[in-house]
Amino acid sequence: MDLDWLTVPARVPDETFIQAALARQQNLTKPPGSLGQLESLAVRFAGLQQTAEPQLERIAIRVFAADHGVAAQGVSAFPQSVTAQMVANFCRGGAAICVLARKLEADFKVVNLGCTGETPEHPDLIDARIAPASGDFTRGPAMSREQLAMALNAGRDQVAGADVFLGGEMGIGNTTAAAAILAALYQLPVAAITGRGTGIDDRVLEHKVAVIEKALVLHNLKRQSPLQLLQTLGGFEIAALVGAYISCAQRGVPVLVDGFITTAAAAVALAINPGIEPWLVYSHLSNESGHKLALDKLRAEPLLSLDMRLGEGSGAAMAAGVIRQALALHNQMATFAEAGVAGAD
Ligand SMILES: O=C(O)c1ccc[n+]([C@@H]2O[C@H](COP(=O)([O-])O)[C@@H](O)[C@H]2O)c1
Ligand SMILES: Cc1cc2nc[nH]c2cc1C
């Protein structure tokens, strides 16, 4: 399967709209800078969306779900069956991301890349099943080259015209895959990047670190490309996110990166195609302990810090509300001249 599209250059933010938005922010009825990051968000989105009136009306949310062979190593606080059960919950509208998606009036879909267990037929559920689960990477590669390509392309195929794209994920065991990817990609100590995921105790955390360390020794990762790393350690949903992020940047759709697992996907996507960087907005600092280190490696500043560690795209959905308000302020506030308010001396 052809993966040449992954390195097609990303769009470039429009400097003219950035300068116009900066000038407008100086003229709005407030002391310059007093809206802090809300100002820089509006300026950034003006450049990304190539418009004087950036907006977040058409929000696309895609939750990519998949199971992980490495879950068999006892690295999660929950059984693998929860992935498929949560897919059903996403369809019924009972998950946290469903509530937030309704509030945002977002276009919401779940993409099933392969879960062990029954999943319903539902108009909001896209069937992109590759296998019941990725392979256990403590024994061999997580996926074949063909499966990797299918997952990347499935993510790409979820990107269409929207004001912003929010990628979420669901997959028991995927913090183990994400930690392994980040450790290998950035040569980090496994213990520093590995956290408690769904809430494992000290004993299981120690085991999780040992499982990842053993796998990194098993696979000769030093000479592997970012794509090979993803194939060896990643899950189908992580690969789909990589494909979606790269495609968004190529099509000019800004992305809200969610938490720890999505940041691992962003890191791989950036390693494959560095030009996508301007399109990735980091929504929040997850409570997963390695997230700060991963964001530091990416020199990324998250917008929010709410001690969330849910996944599903929930942190990105919270950030979307803030950005929507930032853009409304930019578009709708009066200027000093319009309001007859005196500017600074
Ligand atoms: O997004 C995050 O930062 C995050 C942090 C910890 C856990 N999660 C979610 O929890 C699941 C993975 O946890 P675990 O313990 O099974 O590896 C998966 O479905 C993720 O969506 C998500
Ligand atoms: C219940 C539950 C919901 C989730 N949503 C994302 N990851 C999750 C993990 C669990 C266990």
Automatic annotation (TrEMBL):
Enzyme active site: E312
One MF annotation (Gene Ontology) recorded for this entry: nicotinate-nucleotide-dimethylbenzimidazole phosphoribosyltransferase activity
Listed pathway(s): Nucleoside biosynthesis; alpha-ribazole biosynthesis; alpha-ribazole from 5,6-dimethylbenzimidazole: step 1/2
The EC number(s) this enzyme carries: 2.4.2.21
Tagged with keyword Nucleotide-binding: no
Reaction(s) catalysed by this chain's protein: 5,6-dimethylbenzimidazole + nicotinate beta-D-ribonucleotide = alpha-ribazole 5'-phosphate + nicotinate + H(+)
Keywords assigned by UniProt, alphabetized: Cobalamin biosynthesis, Glycosyltransferase, Transferase
GO biological process: cobalamin biosynthetic process
Function: Catalyzes the synthesis of alpha-ribazole-5'-phosphate from nicotinate mononucleotide (NAMN) and 5,6-dimethylbenzimidazole (DMB).
NCBIfam families to which the protein is assigned, alphabetical: cobT_DBIPRT (TIGR03160), PRK00105.1 (NF000996)
Family listed: Belongs to the CobT family.
Protein name: Nicotinate-nucleotide--dimethylbenzimidazole phosphoribosyltransferase
Gene encoding the protein: cobT
